[in-house]
Design goal:
Layout (H helix, E strand, L loop, with lengths): L1 E3 L3 E5 L5 H8 L16 H12 L3 E8 L7 E11 L4 E8 L8 H15 L5 E7 L3 H9 L3 E12 L2 E11 H6 L1
Helix pairs in contact: 1-2
Length: 176
């Protein structure tokens, strides 16, 4: 499955993408606002293999449309947050050399379109460390709103840090 935008293509991850997914997911320089970063090991490979072959999560490899080689520049994911509520959660990571070029924003917008149109979601949520201003701005600029701040939710860098909770409803998405 491929989803084409103006600048990027999202391709549903397959087993041959697992090494790339693991390298990004375990790169501590990409996840500086997270409490914990996964180790690049067999456990992480199994996690992605299960996700790729299941129906509770969709991982998409992001490539730049104009790049004929189609080297991956990151990934976006959506997974079931509360199945009975038709709620999904989004996550994303774009490699540093491709950040601040609109690729992440377009990827998230395409992902939201997929979730609301194809998966028939009622609500999509996203969370970020309050210090991660770029992530919060991206969710906001994609139509998500700040629903609240969980006080001292994350034990990050040896201190308790707030986490922001964003969401967008299907009705809000359709009116956007």
């Amino acid at each position: 499955m491929k989803i084409e935008g103006k600048k990027v293509i999202l391709s549903k991850a397959v087993e041959s993408d697992i090494e790339f997914l693991c390298s990004v997911e375990s790169d501590k320089t990409l996840w500086i606002y997270e409490e914990d970063v996964a180790e690049n090991d067999e456990k992480l490979r199994e996690k992605f293999k299960t996700r790729i072959n299941g129906d509770r999560c969709y991982d998409f490899i992001v490539t730049v449309k104009e790049n004929s080689i189609q080297n991956p520049i990151g990934f976006v994911s959506v997974w079931k947050y509360a199945d009975w509520r038709k709620s999904w959660e989004v996550g994303y990571s774009i490699l540093p050399q491709y950040q601040n070029k609109g690729y992440g924003m377009e990827s998230l917008k395409l992902l939201l379109e997929f979730v609301f149109i194809e998966l028939k979601a009622h609500k999509v949520v996203g969370m970020c460390n309050i210090e991660n201003v770029a992530s919060a701005k991206m969710m906001y600029n994609c139509g998500m709103r700040l629903e609240g701040t969980f006080k001292e939710e994350l034990n990050w860098n040896g201190k308790w840090t707030d986490q922001q909770f964003f969401s967008i409803l299907e009705s809000e998405y359709k009116n956007n």
